[in-house]
Amino acid sequence: MPDEEQRRLLGAFVRARRESIAPDQPAGRRRTPGLRREELAARAGIGSTWVAWIEQGRAVRASAETLARLADGLCLTAAERAYLFTLAGRGDPADPFAAARHAAPPAIAAAVAALAWPAYGLDRAWTVCAANAAARRLFVGLFEGEEAPNLLRYIFTHPAARALLPDWPGRSARVLAEFRRDYGRAPGDPQVRGVVAWLRLHSEAFRAGWERQSVIAREGGERSFCHPVDGPLAFTQHTLAEVERGDFRLVFLQPGSASAGAGV
Question: Which of 96, 92, 93, 73 is nearest to 83 (CA)?
Answer without folding.
Answer: 92
